[in-house]
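hey can u check if this looks right to u? its 291 residues, i copy pasted from the old doc so theres a chance i mangled smth
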Amino acid sequence: MRVVLSGEGKPIPTVAIPDPSSDENLPTQAFLLNHGVPFLKTPFVDQGYTHVEIWCVGAVGGKGGNTPWNQRDSEGTMGGAGGGGGLHRILTSLANLPNSCPVVVGVAGSNGTDNDGISVATPGGNGGVSSFNGTTCRASGGGGGAPGPGGFSPGGNGGAGGSGDRTSAGGGATGGANGTWNGVIGYGGSGGKGGSYFTNPDGDPRPNPAPDISYEAGEAGHGSYSFEDTSVYGSRQSRSAYPNPWNPPNNGLILPGTGGGARISTLMAYGSRAPSFNPNGAVFIRVMQIV
C-alpha cells in the first residue's frame, strides 16, 4: 500500500509511505485526518500496528468589530484579535480505542461586524475545537476578540488562547501573554488588544486645541511556548497599521495580531493567522508498532 498525504491551506509537501510488507518492522504511517471522516483502526491492527500518537490543534478566534468615532473610517477603536488554538498530544494503544473513532477539525472563528452607525460592533467568533474520538484527544479553539468600545479609549481586549484537553473555547493565555507547553498540553497565545486613533475634528468636546491621540494595539502572545521544547512553538501574528492613506502617530499600529497556535511539524502549522499558519485546527496521527 502506498499513501500520499496533503492538506488544506498552505501547501504541504507530499510524503510517500512505503509498503508495510516490504519490511519486517512496520514503518510508522502518518495521516492528516479530515473533518467528519472517522479513523478505522482494524486495518492497522490486522497488519500488526499497536499504538497511535495523536495531535489535535484548535482553530484561531476571530477579531472583534471596530467602532468608528463619529462614523469616520480613519478614526475609532479597533476590536481585539482572537486567541490562538490550543494543542493536545497523546500516545495510546490501539487496543484502547473503538474500531471507529470520530474526527472533528475546528474552523477559524469569524470576525465580528463593525459598528455602522445603526448596529453596534460585535465580538469575534470563537475558534472551533478539534478532537479525535471525543475526549481521547482534544484541543479548544481560541476565544474571539472583544469589539472596540468606542469613545476616546483604547480598543477591545484580545481573546484568550485555546487549551489542550478542553472543548470550550479559551482556557489558555490572556492579556497578550504567551501560551505554555508541557509536552502533553499546550495553551494558545492570547490575541492582542485593539488600538485606536482620533484626529481633532470640528466639534471635538475635549479642551481646545486638542492634539491627535493614538493608542497602539497590544502585542499578541505566542502559542505552546517552552524554552525546553520549541518544536511545537506557534508564533504570533504581528500587529499592523490601519490600511488607510493617513499617517497617525506611533506608525499607526492600531490593528492587533492574533495569538499563536502550534506546529505539528516544521511545515504543518495551525490555529493562528501568523504567516505560514493555517487558521483552522488540525487532527494528525502517527500509527506505529511498538514491540
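The two ends are 22 Å apart (CA to CA).
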